Amino acid sequence: MLSLIFLITCALSWQECLATAQNSTYFNPVLSGWHSDPSCIQVDGTFYCVTSTFIAFPGLPIYASRDLINWRLISHAWNRESQLPGASNQTHGQQEGFYAATIRHHDGEFWVICEYLGLPGGMLATIFKSSDPYTETSWADPITFITPAGDLDLFWDDDGKLYIPAGGAVLLDVDLATGEILDSTALWSGTGGVWPEGPHLYRKDGYYYISSAEGGTELGHYQVMARSTSLTGPYEPCPYNPVLTNKGTDEYFQTVGHADLFQDLSGNWWGVALSTRSGPEWSIYPMGRETVLFPVTWDEGEWPVMEPVRGEMSGWPLPQTDRNLPGDGLFNADRDMYDFPAGSRFPLNLLYWRAPPEGAFSIAPEGGLRISPSRANLTGDGDELDGRLGISFVGRVQTDSLFKFQVLLDAHPPYVDHEAGVTLFLTQNNHADLGIVSRAADSCKNSTERVLRFRAVGDTAPPENIVTVPETWGAGPILLTIEAVNATHFTFLASSDSQTEEPIEVGTVSGRLVSGQSGPFTGTILGVYATCNGSGDGSRCPPDGDVYVKRWTYAGHGQLYTSSEVRPSSNYTSFGG
Ligand SMILES: *[C@@H]1O[C@H](CO)[C@@H](O)[C@H](O)[C@H]1NC(C)=O
Ligand SMILES: *[C@@H]1O[C@H](CO)[C@@H](O)[C@H](O)[C@H]1NC(C)=O
Ligand SMILES: *[C@@H]1O[C@H](CO)[C@@H](O)[C@H](O)[C@H]1NC(C)=O
Ligand SMILES: *[C@@H]1O[C@H](CO)[C@@H](O)[C@H](O)[C@H]1NC(C)=O
Ligand SMILES: *[C@@H]1O[C@H](CO)[C@@H](O)[C@H](O)[C@H]1NC(C)=O
Ligand SMILES: *[C@@H]1O[C@H](CO)[C@@H](O)[C@H](O)[C@H]1NC(C)=O
Ligand SMILES: CC(=O)N[C@H]1CO[C@H](CO)[C@@H](O)[C@@H]1O
Prior knowledge:
By secondary structure, the chain is mainly β. The chain folds into two domains: 25-315, Glycosyl hydrolase domain, family 43 (Tachylectin-2, Chain A, 5 Propeller); 336-560, Jelly Rolls (Sandwich). It contains two helices and 40 strands. The strands form nine sheets. Strands 25, 27, 28, 30, 35, 36, 37, 39 and 40 form a nine-stranded antiparallel sheet that branches. The longest helix has 9 residues, at 14-22.
C-alpha cells in the first residue's frame, strides 16, 4: 500500500522513487556536547570516531556506532597515566594536552595519532594502537616522537608505506622505530586562509585528495580540498572551495570545519566535522565544539559535494538503527543514573581535569563514590596548588541544551574553608560552583557549621551567595542540582534528601561564563569536587575530609536544533521519505 502511494505520487522513475523514499532525516549534532575535531572510519560495518580532549583525562575517547546516530563510548586511547608518565602533571595551560586526533584502521589494527602540547621538550606526537578498541587496556603505550607540525593524519600509500600528513599540508616521513623525521614535504599551501589545519589525505579514483580546514576554528572556519595524481603534488585546488562552511550565514550551527570523510557499507560517503550551536551572535555556546554528520556525494573522478550542516538533515539512507554494540559505556545521548554499588566499575563517561590525585576516587565498600579532597581547589593558584598535581574533581560532558544534573552529596568538611560541591566547569578560570563549605560558627567554642555557597569564577561572574543549611535538614546528605532552565541560564539548587520538592535556589549564572572565554577549544563539564583549600602538605589534605556521592544523575530535557526550536533529548529519529 505504502509503495503504491509512492509510485503514484512520484514523478520520477521507480528506481529514483525508491532512492528518494529511502533517504533519511536525522538531527545534528550526532555527538552532542564537547566533541571537537572528530575523525571517523568504518570497519566491517561499524563506525568508529575519536575526538580531542586537551588536558581532560582519560583522553581520546573512542565511540562506535552501527547506524551513525547511536554512538557508544567504548574506550579511551589514553586511559592510564603510565602511558605517558608525567605528561599530565607537567601540563600547565588549560587548553594544552591532546589536539586533533586521527583514527585509522590498517592491517587489523586501530591507530590513533595525536599531538600533545604543553611539555617542555616540544610538541609530542603520539601513536596509540589497539586490535580491540572495546577494551581500554588494549590501547598500548604510544609510539612517540617530537613533531615539527601538529594536527597529524595517517596515510598508507598504495605500496603500504605510511606517511604522516600534518597541519599546513606537510607530508612527514617518520622512522617510527627511532622517531627520526626522515623527510618533510610541503604538499599544498591551501587557499590562503589563516590556520590551515586538520588535514586528511584520501586516495580515490587515481587521485590523492587533501582535505583541510582553514580560517581558524571560530566563525570564519571552513573546509577546502585539493587533489593530485601524485602523492607529492602538484595539488590542484577544488574549484568549488570552500567545500563546506557556515561562515557568513545566520545559521544556528556555526564554526563548521575540521572534517573527515568515510564510506558506509552501501558505498555512500559521509562526513563529520565540528560545529558550535551559537548562531552568528557567538555569545552563549556552553557545549563548545560538537560533532556533526553530513552526507557527501562523491561520484567517480569528481570532487565531493558536502551537504551544508544544519540541525535537521536529510541525505543517504542511514544504516538500520542498531544499539547492539559490545561494552557497557553510555551512548552519547543517554542519561547517567549512578549510585555506585559496591564492587561496580567506574562509569566510562566520567572524566577528570588532568590525571586525578592518586587514590582520590574509589567506590566505597558500602557503595557510593568516595572522594578524598585535593589540596588544590578548582581554580588553583601558585605553583604547588595550581592543579597540575591533580584536582579532586570528576565530571561528565554537558550533552544537552537543557538538562538537570543532580548529586546527593554526603559532605561534612571538617575544617574552616574546606568544601565539596557541584560545578559547572569550563576551565579552572571559568566555573560556577555550589559548595557545602565549613565556616567558623562560634570563635569562642572553635566550632564550625555547614553553609551552602554559590560562587562563580570568570569575567561575567555574579556575586557570591551564602545560605545557612536549614536546621531541619539535619546532618544528612544534601541534594545539589545544576539545571539548564533555558538555553542561556543555569540555576543552582540545594535541598535535603527528604524534601526535594522544596529546593533553595542558591544561584543563577549566564552561559556566557562558560562559552569560549578561557576554554575556546573545550566545552562545559558538570561535576563534583572536594578540596581542603591548600591545607595539609605535599599531596595530602588533613585526614577525615572524605566526601561521598550517594547518587549521581544527569538527564537531558531538550536539544536546540535551531536558535528557537527544541527537540526531545536522547532519542533521535530516522524515517523513510
Ligand atoms: C609526575 O608524574 C610522574 C610519573 O607518574 C612521577 O614520577 C612524578 O613524581 C610526578 N611529579 C610530581 C611532582 O608529583
Ligand atoms: C539523497 O541524499 C543524497 C545525499 O545527500 C543526495 O545526493 C540525493 O540527492 C538525495 N536524494 C533525493 C531524492 O533527495
Ligand atoms: C583556591 O586556592 C588558592 C591557592 O591555594 C587560594 O589562593 C584561593 O583563595 C582558593 N580559592 C578559593 C575560592 O578557595
Ligand atoms: C582558602 O584559603 C585561603 C588561605 O589559605 C583563604 O584566604 C581563603 O579565604 C580560603 N578560601 C575559601 C573560599 O575559603
Ligand atoms: C581549633 O580547632 C582546630 C582543628 O581542630 C585546632 O587545630 C585548633 O588548635 C583549635 N583552636 C583552638 C583555639 O582550640
Ligand atoms: C532564562 O532564564 C533566566 C534565569 O531564570 C532568565 O533571567 C531569562 O530571562 C530566561 N531567558 C529566556 C529567554 O526566557
Ligand atoms: C522512541 C525511541 O527511540 N525510544 C528510545 C529512547 O532511548 C531509550 C534508551 O535511552 C531506548 O530504550 C528507547 O527505545
